[in-house]
């Protein structure tokens, strides 16, 4: 080397001394910051052998953080990648030591510099390649005998080195890679020659030593307590560093990327305390939700009300909630619907009466021909006919039809379904809990061998059916345009479900849509049903499945979101700003403790945080649960089910909620 290079090195050493003797800056530098101080830090890290970049910048990025962490590990500091006063002192000590060594033995130092003067790559050979291999071996990247030939083993070692030092992993040793190798070699040599320069270890309160297997004392007891509080140690607190303590420490070290040696040193102790403090800071989680009222697919009734009050017409309401649909007319004059009526669960019998004479048609088997014969009983007005299941048959008794031979009410057994038919002017009533409930049309009663009971089916014209649905689903006092929209939705919903292949088409409850027969008929609603007679909702010429609910909490959802299955193009989620009901505002909340969530997800250890990571239609889809031992992502429904199972009661009023950490 020439004299100019020697002078350059000496000048550089003088500059390092100057920097090392300067006062420690009060500014803390960390990941993501951008300032001239960051550039200055990068320059010093390069000089200290913790290579960051050949072209220092003002940005504190991953390479700078990694270099700071390597420095901290070398000086037994917490490797958090944050450049504060202790880390700055370590860096200054390092620079000072390098400067002294350079000044005292500059010629020797220059002679130990790498003599690599060319770019080295696969296939080359020579003394400079051998020197490269020796250097990589000293740094722990080359584990075989140096040969002077740049083969695949050397290339792999170079790539591994480049990746570890944030260089382009191309396997080629150019100027940047050479400089990084030289810098690390200088730092390694200096560290080996001055092992006493490391700062004195300052243990946290309660600790004064490294603890290992076989140790006993209050500090071991404190360590066990802290590990137990964060979910790593599950045994009794004994104060003896036994196998259980050793395994807990090693599990902790492995998860938090510490040296897995089973020894509770300064870094492990400091990290245990840090995580313990995080655990103690978590009180629980606050869940605040919107109620909604129903599945949230299609039209919302409160939304229809709001639109009508803003002077939207019923066809506009329909077309807002059902995407891409049309309104058409269908002939419903001769269309009947079969409705399964909810039975009085307190009575084993079905009891029917009428204000006019009525007929009961039943079936028996001829003993001679074994043919099925249809028979009929004429029942007086105001009489009650009772039907009861018996071994697959139906036992029929009318309280006013007397058997001439016994002078008691006549009892008949039907071997199949029974029809109850009103007179032309009569109305049938089903007696539920002692109250006669009137229904248009006729009844048909089937024996149900599965439930050992009877099914009561009301058969009536579709338009008559709507008279018992619309005012049961929506208050008749609401705006006419909302009631018309409800009528079209109810008519289309029912019509698409009518089938000759089933004994009934719809339920009379929210399993389908609410139907209460003639007990809820209303003149205003009757007129609106007549005004829209036959009008249905269609998509591409076919009937649309016009499902609806009371409220979606302010945002409807896709059908696939609610029920899965194939995509339905007209059942798409959208904002519902017209719904001003209580269900569309925050109205329920619940507190969940940290321990309750931890017990639901023991695999993550003690829970530190729960956050919603994915939403659809303003509703949680996935949540991330972070704990002291791991992190998992769970589905919304699975999360709600797991928490409620752990708590032992219902907590979530709906699936529409937010969750926040309570400290």
Write the layout of secondary structure elements.
Elements: H1 3-20, H2 36-47, H3 62-74, H4 85-104, H5 106-111, H6 127-138, H7 152-164, H8 175-193, H9 218-229, H10 243-255, H11 266-281, E1 284-290, E2 299-300, H12 301-309, H13 314-321, E3 326-329, E4 336-340, E5 350-354, E6 358-365, E7 372-379, E8 385-390, E9 393-403, E10 408-414, E11 418-422, E12 428-432, E13 435-439, E14 442-448, E15 453-461, H14 462-473, H15 480-495, E16 506-507, H16 523-531, E17 535-539, E18 542-543, E19 548-549, H17 559-563, E20 586-593, H18 594-600, E21 607-616, E22 619-627, E23 631-635, H19 636-647, E24 656-662
Parallel strand pairs: 2-19, 4-16
Antiparallel strand pairs: 1-20, 1-24, 3-17, 4-15, 5-8, 5-12, 6-7, 6-11, 8-9, 9-10, 11-14, 12-13, 14-15, 17-18, 21-22, 22-23
Helix pairs in contact: 1-4, 4-8, 9-11, 12-15, 13-15, 14-15, 14-16, 18-19
What does this entry look like structurally?
This protein is α+β, with helices and mostly antiparallel strands. The strands form 6 sheets. A 7-stranded mixed sheet has the order 7-6-11-14-15-4-16. It has a 6-stranded antiparallel sheet with strand order 10-9-8-5-12-13, with no helix packed on it. A 3-stranded antiparallel sheet has the order 20-1-24. Strand 14 and strand 15 form a beta hairpin. It contains 19 helices and 24 strands.
């Amino acid at each position: 080397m020439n004299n100019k290079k020697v002078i350059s090195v000496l000048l550089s050493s003088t500059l390092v001394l100057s920097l090392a003797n300067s006062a420690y800056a009060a500014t803390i530098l960390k990941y993501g910051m951008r300032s001239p101080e960051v550039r200055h830090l990068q320059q010093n890290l390069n000089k200290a052998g913790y290579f960051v970049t050949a072209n220092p910048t003002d940005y504190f990025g991953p390479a700078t953080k990694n270099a700071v962490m390597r420095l901290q590990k070398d000086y037994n500091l917490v490797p958090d990648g944050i450049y504060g006063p202790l880390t700055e002192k370590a860096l200054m000590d390092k620079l000072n030591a390098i400067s002294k060594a350079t000044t005292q033995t500059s010629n020797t130092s220059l002679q130990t510099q790498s003599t690599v003067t060319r770019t080295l790559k696969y296939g080359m050979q020579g003394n400079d390649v051998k020197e490269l291999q020796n250097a990589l071996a000293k740094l722990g990247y080359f584990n075989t005998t140096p040969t002077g030939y740049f083969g695949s083993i050397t290339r792999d070692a170079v790539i591994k080195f480049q990746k570890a030092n944030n260089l382009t992993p191309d396997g080629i040793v150019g100027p940047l890679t050479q400089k990084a190798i030289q810098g690390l070699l200088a730092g390694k040599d200096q560290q080996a020659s001055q092992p006493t320069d490391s700062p004195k270890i300052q243990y946290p309160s309660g600790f004064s030593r490294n603890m290992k297997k076989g140790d006993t004392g209050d500090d071991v007891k404190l360590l066990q307590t802290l590990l137990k509080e964060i979910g790593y140690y599950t045994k009794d607190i004994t104060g003896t560093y036994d196998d259980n303590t050793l395994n807990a420490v090693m599990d902790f070290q492995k998860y938090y990327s510490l040296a897995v040696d089973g020894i509770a040193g300064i870094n492990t102790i400091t990290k245990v305390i840090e995580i313990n403090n995080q655990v103690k800071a978590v009180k629980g989680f606050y869940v605040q939700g919107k109620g909604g009222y129903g599945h949230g697919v299609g039209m919302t009734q409160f939304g229809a009300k709001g639109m009508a009050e803003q002077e939207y017409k019923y066809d506009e309401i329909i077309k807002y909630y059902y995407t891409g649909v049309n309104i058409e007319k269908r002939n419903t004059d001769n269309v009947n619907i079969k409705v399964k009526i909810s039975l009085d669960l307190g009575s084993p019998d079905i009891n029917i009466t009428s204000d006019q004479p009525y007929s009961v048609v039943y079936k028996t088997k001829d003993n001679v021909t074994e043919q099925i014969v249809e028979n009929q009983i004429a029942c007086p007005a105001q009489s009650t006919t009772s039907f009861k299941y018996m071994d697959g048959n139906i036992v029929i008794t009318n309280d006013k039809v007397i058997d001439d031979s016994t002078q008691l009410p006549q009892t008949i057994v039907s071997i199949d379904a029974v029809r109850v038919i009103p007179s032309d002017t009569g109305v049938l009533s089903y007696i539920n809990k002692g109250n006669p409930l009137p229904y248009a049309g006729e009844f048909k009663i089937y024996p149900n061998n599965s439930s050992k009971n009877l099914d009561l089916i009301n058969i009536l014209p579709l338009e008559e059916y709507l008279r018992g649905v619309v005012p049961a689903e929506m208050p008749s006092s609401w705006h006419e345009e909302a009631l018309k929209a409800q009528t079209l939705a109810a008519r289309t919903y029912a019509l698409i479900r009518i089938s000759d292949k089933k004994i009934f088409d719809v339920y009379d409850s929210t399993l389908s849509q609410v139907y209460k027969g003639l007990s809820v008929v209303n003149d205003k609603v009757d007129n609106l049903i007549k005004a829209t007679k036959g009008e249905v909702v269609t998509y591409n010429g076919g009937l649309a499945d016009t499902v609806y609910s009371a409220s979606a909490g302010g945002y409807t959802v896709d059908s696939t979101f609610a029920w899965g299955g194939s995509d339905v193009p007209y059942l798409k989620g959208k904002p519902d700003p017209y719904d001003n009901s209580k269900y569309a505002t925050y109205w329920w909340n619940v507190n969940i403790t940290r321990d309750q969530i931890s017990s639901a997800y023991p695999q993550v250890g003690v829970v530190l945080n729960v956050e919603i990571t994915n939403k659809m239609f303003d509703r949680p889809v996935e949540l991330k649960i972070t704990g002291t031992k791991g992190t998992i992502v769970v589905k919304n429904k699975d999360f709600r089910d797991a928490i409620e199972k752990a708590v032992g009661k219902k907590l979530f009023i709906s699936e529409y909620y937010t969750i926040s950490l309570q400290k």
